[in-house]
Fold this protein.
Amino acid sequence: MSNSDSYFTLVVHTPERAERLKEILKFHGVDVKLDDFVVKDSSVAAKSVRIPVSALEIGLKILESDQVSTSPVSIMKISGMGNSLLIPVDFSPASILAVKIGFVLARKMNVEPIVLHAFLAPVFPSEPFGEDLENPGMPEMEEEIDTITDIHSVAAEQLAKFKKQIINHQKDGSLPDIHFSTTLLEGVPEQVITEYCRDNKPVMVVMATRGIHRKESDLIGSVTAEVIDSCRVPVFTVPEECAPLSKDSIRNILFFCTLTPVDIVNMRAFMKLGDYPSSSIYILPVSDRPFANVTARIEDIAALFSKTYPTASFHYDALGKEKFEDALRSFLDSHDIDVIVVPNKKSTAFSRFFKPTLAHKILFDKDIPLLVLPV
């Protein structure tokens, strides 16, 4: 066996971490062998991770980066968050795509996906005050209750059918075979989702979005837009025409940075969820200051990211001087962006109407997956 074909022990890990490192190394084209590592008079289970000598450089780069130091869920969580991932659905074809992507992310983060449907019962006008005091509308009230009950029953039946559809996809292998649950709640969908997130604190919300032309026809009432602007958990939006997530589907990434330590946390969160892509990542500042005034800071951030994630390439840039929407559209098209990562501050309904957030603007301008991270 030649020197280039010989293997050496890169590191000794617990079996779980060894398997994880093997997955990362193999993704980067490194052949890996795992051997039992036995220590005399010790019951501790361990594995030695062995790679070819020719892969020493890339192996050490990956080992010295933070790619294996923490799990995705530990990065995405904030204090008090639970162990679930929320997937709101409306039973449209786009909903099953959101479920597919949500299940992939839930398995990667080792959390339980919750499929939620919100239905809206009709509002019945009350009788004018003082009218028909002898017979205060009891038959009408019973009819109203029956109507609400029927709507609930229909929604429950639709959710049960959708659940069976998910199970069938799991059986045929098109969905990860992981445990999930469903929940049915009454109310305005965006309010229901926001309240659910506030009370249960999922680690992420995965939502389908309409195509660009349908978004424009429903600009004011977009459920997803309201959720990304009001929820304090990460939201991943899935356009109707989005391809399933895979190791090869995320190559060009637009990362909006705040020029604060939050950027480090946000980048680590995305890299954990993106299967450690050998990607081109374009860093743009979210800043009203001229680009020349923040260039040095962005250079520092890009250098830090390059050291931390040596298999990805980082670039920093600024949008053109034309109108923001036009400049962004031109940048996305010229760089063939696959995913956008954007920080988002909570805003009031009043401010969202007159000054939409960056995430809100992007949502309505392009059919590109969007990871919105609250700051």
The radius of gyration is 25 Å. The chain has 13 helices and 13 strands. Confidence is low (pLDDT under 50) at residues 215-221. The first strand starts at residue 7 and ends at 13.
